[in-house]
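Proteins fold reproducibly. Look at a sample protein:
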Amino acid sequence: MYPVLFQIGDVGLYTYGLFVALGLFTAISVSKKIAASEQIPAQTITDIFFVILISAIIGARLLYVLINYDVYQANLLEVFKIWNGGLVFFGGFLGATLATALFLTHKGLDLWKMADILSPGIALGHAVGRIGCFFAGCCYGKTCDLFFAVQFSHPESLAPTGVHLHPTQIYMVISNFILFLILILLHRKKRFNGQVFLSYVMLYSLFRFIIEFFRGDYRGNFLFDFISVSQGIGLLVSAAALILLIQRYRSSFHGRH
């Protein structure tokens, strides 16, 4: 596709970075709108997303580099070139979750309530950001002969060129958008704090687990060369989210009786 939208001399606008920025803007905008209905100041959301942005980038890049360490050990400066792609969502998720939990605790805010407010916007922002993956060619799929297969031709594309591939980036865009719609509906009808966030974690992990089977890039092996590191983490995180959902549902049920 088009990894670089335009370039003037040594300065270029990378499509991946542009859509990550648009995704962040989308997530903040949606979260502020939801927060307003909960009487949460807009500045609080801005502060939280600053923490999320820094910790997510560090966590996502760190996990990607660990998985692909052989690629980076000869040139450690490449680790910092995130505009070329190379972020693992679960690394960013775990890093951002820990950092944000510490920040919210420090501010005296309800962790579960704030997580519910942020989840729909993050899902939609993630969908927007994945468009950048498509243009950059990262997170590409396996070869296939389906009528909607995509073919990359740009010499700077991170995906193999000249072959038909599963458009896994688009799969992730669609799944995250569907997840956004589910979370918005769930937020309006939730029965306890944490329900939206835990549902987001569980459903995203399941969607990601399925899509990973169509990925063609190396993502590390987690178990018997059958599932990737992201799939392994996703299964563990999804199971943990389900257990917490059940526990919090039971607690809220008993609290009403």
